[in-house]
TrEMBL record:
Entry protein name: Cyclin
Keywords tagged on the record: Cell cycle, Cell division
Biological process according to GO: cell division
Gene designation per UniProt: gb07477
Pfam families: Cyclin
Domain of life: Eukaryota
Protein family: Belongs to the cyclin family. Cyclin U/P subfamily.
Source species of the chain: Eleusine coracana subsp. coracana
GO MF term set: protein kinase binding
C-alpha cells in the first residue's frame, strides 16, 4: 500500500467534520444560554437537567476531535454518522428538557454512534471497546445505551426518505461552513482571443455569464 493510499484511507469523511461543526455550534449556543440563566437567577446557579448523559465537567477534547477519534478507532461506516444524527434528534425530541451542551454532547455522541453502528453495519466492536474509545467505563456505556434506547422508544428503523432528508440538512450545513467561491470572470480580450470571435460586446458578456453558470453548477456534494 502506498503512502497516498494510507492517507486516503485515514482521511476523515466530510460528514464527520460537518456533524461536529453543527453540534459544536449548538453546544456553544446552549452553553451561553445556560450561563445567562444562571447569572440571572442565583437559585439556578450550578443546576442543570438531571440526566445520565450530563457530566460534571466539560471534557478536555473538542467535539471535532472526539468524533475523529471515534472514526479512527471504531471503524464504522460514514452512513452510521447520519443515522446517529437521526437517533440523536429523535432522542432530544422526546426529551425536550435536555439541551445539547458541552457537558453532555460527548456521551450523547458515543452512545448514538454505538447504537447506529449496531443497526447499520454488519460488523462492529462491542461495548467494552466503544467505552475505551469514548473514555468512559463499560458500566457507564451499558447504562447509557439502555437509557438511549428507551429514550428513542427503540425506534431504530430509518427509511430512505428520512435518511435523505437528514443528508440534506447536513448538506446545507456544509454550504454554510464552506460557501462556494465567487465565479471568476475571464478578461474580455482573452475570450476574444480563444473563442470564435464574438461579434459584439453582448456576445462576450453572454459567454462570461455562461462560464460563470457552469462554475456554480459544480457544487460539492455530501457523500455518505
Amino acid at each position: 500500500m502506498t503512502t497516498g493510499e494510507m492517507v486516503e484511507q485515514s482521511a476523515v469523511p466530510r460528514v464527520v467534520s460537518i456533524l461536529s461543526a453543527l453540534l459544536q455550534r449548538v453546544a456553544e449556543r446552549n452553553d451561553a444560554a445556560a450561563e445567562e440563566e444562571e447569572e440571572g437567577s442565583a437559585a439556578a446557579a450550578g443546576r442543570r437537567p438531571v440526566s445520565a448523559f450530563q457530566g460534571l465537567t466539560k471534557p478536555a477534547i473538542s467535539i471535532g476531535g472526539y468524533l475523529e477519534r471515534i472514526f479512527r478507532f471504531a471503524g464504522c461506516s460514514p452512513s452510521c454518522y447520519v443515522v446517529a444524527y437521526i437517533y440523536l434528534d429523535r432522542f432530544l425530541r422526546r426529551r425536550p428538557a435536555l439541551a445539547v451542551d458541552s457537558f453532555n454532547v460527548h456521551r450523547l455522541l458515543i452512545t448514538s454512534v454505538l447504537t447506529a453502528v449496531k443497526f447499520v453495519d454488519d460488523i462492529c466492536y462491542n461495548n467494552a471497546y466503544f467505552a475505551r474509545v469514548g473514555g468512559i467505563s463499560l458500566v457507564e456505556m451499558n447504562y447509557l445505551e439502555v437509557d438511549f434506547l428507551f429514550g428513542i422508544a427503540f425506534d431504530l428503523n430509518v427509511t430512505p426518505a428520512a435518511f435523505a432528508s437528514y443528508c440534506a440538512v447536513l448538506q446545507s450545513e456544509m454550504a454554510y461552513l464552506e460557501p462556494p467561491p465567487a465565479p471568476v470572470e475571464a478578461p474580455r480580450l482573452q475570450l476574444q482571443h480563444y473563442c470564435a470571435g464574438p461579434s459584439s460586446d453582448h456576445d462576450v458578456d453572454a459567454a462570461v455569464v455562461a462560464a460563470a453558470g457552469c462554475h456554480r453548477s459544480q457544487q460539492p456534494q455530501l457523500t455518505v
